[in-house]
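Objective 1b: paired records.
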Amino acid sequence: MNKSLGLVVMAVLATLPASVWASGATQDFTGHWIGLVCIALFVFAYALVIGEEAIHLRKSKPMMVAAGIIWVLVAIAYGTHGDKTTAGAAISHNLLEFGELFLFLLAAMTYINTMDERGVFAALRAWLVSRNFSLRTIFWITGVIAFVLSPVADNLTTALLMSTVIMAVGGDNHKYVAVGCINIVVAANAGGAFSPFGDITTLMVWQKGILPFQAFFQLFAPSLVNWLIPAAILSFTLSKEQPPASTEIAVVKDGAWVIVGLFILTIIMAVSSHQFLHLPPVMGMMTGLGFLKFYAYYLQQKGETLDTDLAEDALGLNNDDPELAATDQPGQIDIFHSLARAEWDTLMFFYGIILCVGGLGTLGYLGLLSEFMYGDLGATTANIAVGFLSALIDNIPVMFAVLSMMPDMNEGQWLLVTLTAGVGGSMLSIGSAAGVAVMGQARGIYTFFAHLKWSWAIFLGYAASIWVHFLVNAGRFS
């Protein structure tokens, strides 16, 4: 009975706009000592996140701890004023938002990891490396692929895949690798900005129901300009020499292309369930994940019987079930292994960010920030500033804060903030998940300062993309 009541309460909370938790129903603790402590705690935790590469502390750890402490302080603040319900209701709303995002990303990451295990991406990489293209040609080809692939595979996965191609081709040519990686990061972020599946920020906007699925494609031209301008500038630094020949051969395993087809079907189901049935997109994604698990079972039955005496699988599940056993045998497929390879640190980081920002909003800080940005500065200035904040802080907490403020804006302004949050992070290597991931991939070659050297060119693309958006989408600002 209590569990059923709890589910009903969470369902009702999910229908409330996020602004309820930023202002109106919440009290103002922005000048209270608890509020100031929470701000200081968040800043300290995020400083540890920014220094992840230097201190080798995974970004999820400080944010998860900070989230827990912030919400304890939020509950104490409201409790001392005799309010025993607001903090619990607010955190339930934030947990519901995280749950939808978490399951959506988990299904997408599992598909991507399964395609990787089946050799789909290795085949693409081997084809590019073995074609004997010139360095400049590969620069443009990898950029185009990153721009086209990121709307489907997400900017992080795309950047990691294409950066391995750049490193394989560039070899000891560190200048080429650095410039190629910059191009990949910018292209992946730009491509991800015009698709709900391309970036966490666009996914959050779509799942919130602010923009319909087809509206995101209005950002195609601005996103393309955002990448083309810095790419054209960077390409002049490259020669037309050919890299050393490669004989890399990739084997595509059984069922790979069917899994690609299932992934496309899953995306269609996610879009359809949201557009036509008004259900959360995660329903389509999780159903598609079920299809993938059924197909993996079919592939297992086609192959040799799995050895049920193998060691525990990556998730520590019961190996009495052959489908859950570890699959080290050639040609076998294990969806639970692909699921275990998801970016768990990133997923837990999202948990920490969403709860930290939600806690600060419940204390009144987002209402204060919204009044300054969208009241005093105006929507256009505020939305352009979001891009610069994304470069300095990371676009995920910035966009979640904007969604929590829920400013009253027309479709053109919502598209503008979606664009700037998506591509603004490209101006610094630490401004996006793609940039941070590639820095780890090409450690010591693609660095913060190597990227900073070309930030002026990326800024030109950023400014031009905003101008193009105002030009081609002028009718959406009314």
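Objective 1b, second protein:
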Amino acid sequence: MNYSKQREKILDVLSNNAVHPTAEYLLDLLKKEHANIGYTTLYRNLNQLAQARIIKKIDGLENSARFDHNTHEHYHFICEKCNRVFDIPKGVAPDLLNNTRKATGFDITSHDIIFHGVCHECKRKDS
């Protein structure tokens, strides 16, 4: 993947906002920093970065994908009430990948596991 100042700026803003932002949210942040990046350029770069596994693209919420600068193995939890995305450490299921390989014989090159439910803050608000 070739270097570009726009891509570097996108990665910088993404890595400083660990809220699993949408492209729209990132675009607002980039505009506040006076970056001259349009939506099409941003989305194209995000998809290229995700394909190169430099960032993670998280699908499964609303119509907008979210993006994560953390590419270490972990899972996600999406709250169905507030739509926030949380990281879940891989330690909750330490041998999931190897157990799946052994059970199926599949050659697994990547995986995304997303839990859906209600986060502790929304549960507390409902109580």
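The chain has two domains: 5-68, 74-126. Strands lie at 56-58, 66-68, 74-79, 85-89, 114-117.
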